[in-house]
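JOB MANIFEST
job_type = single_chain_structure
chain_count = 1
residues = 384
[input]
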Amino acid sequence: MPGTPRCRCVRVCQSPVLIRGPGRRRACSHRGLALQEVADGMRVMYERVAGIDVHKDMIKVAIRSPGDKPWTRKTEILEYRTFYGVLQEMARELRRRGVTHVVMEASGVYTEPVYYALCEQDFTEVAVINPVHAKALKGHKTDAKDCARLAELFECGLLRGSYIPPAEQKEVRDLTRYRIKTVQARTSEIQRLGKALESAGIKLGSVASEITGKASTAMIEALIDGERRGGVLADLAIGRMRSAGKLADLSMALTGRFTGHHATLCRLHLDRIKLLGDAVGGLDDRIAAGAARWPQARPDRRRRDLHQADADPGRLVRDPGPRPAAGPVQPAGAPLRRAEEPGREEKGDHRDRAHPAQDRLPGPQERHPVPGPGRRLLYPAELC
């Protein structure tokens, strides 16, 4: 009941929802005091949080803030259209309400305008999370409660934002990915060209290494122009294709049932291949210009040596120190032996002798530095 120290208000939206549990009286009001704890020791890390559920034509925004009474939190849900000017006004409205942290689920290209409109304001953090992460946490998740639930989870630090590259790097990424798609489309056109030739009985792909080379393209252009004599077409070969065996095979491979229909198909495929090839060249230039903004990283010599030591521990260079006195030469490939100790016979018990491979391993002070304890995501079971 309200006023009882053991009652905690988790959410207030029109009517409060109270959860009983053993609690400590650390929750305070929102007037500049410490943040409150809710739901069995779950600390509210951010006082004013907004969760956004992104759709194609509209977004829903849930604003979580301290309630009018102590021990309470309230949720206010707003709705906006997805025009960029409206999104900018939404971001300004959130700042006027004192929101410092904003969270939303990744929704493909629909998330980008919302994210960049929010980045124009001075929010402490704008996080885009993986939807699978939010679904994995305990609780119901429906379309009507998406934005409110995101805000509730994020204010307690249960959600982790994904990496969002800067705008300049995002542009280079878009060009690189579009280049991959363009190369794939060009490869598909080359395969269609090969199928059209095979359908006509032209076995150019069985003799030439590639059907889009200079000589092969000249032969296909001659076929499109009406030339059907295999010997004349084979005479267009250049380079190593003009060997005696190749010319004879080409003469037979270029004789088939090439009709006007095949000529039309080959013309379309060649034009498409040339267009896509020019597009790939233009994208290469744009990507190179965009990547020139960042200096090329030089390899770290110490890190390179450590990688070599991982590949072959015996190659790790150690400080030799003072050169020992000359002794008997050990055969190549024989395992390194420990120095004999007083009272130990050479043919004694070898169970306490180190493995030969351990003699070539680096010592504890020469191995990779062990990193300090890193951060990890705390799940609700660990936080309670």
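[summary]
Residues 167-199 form the longest helix (33 residues).
The radius of gyration is 35 Å.
exit_status = 0
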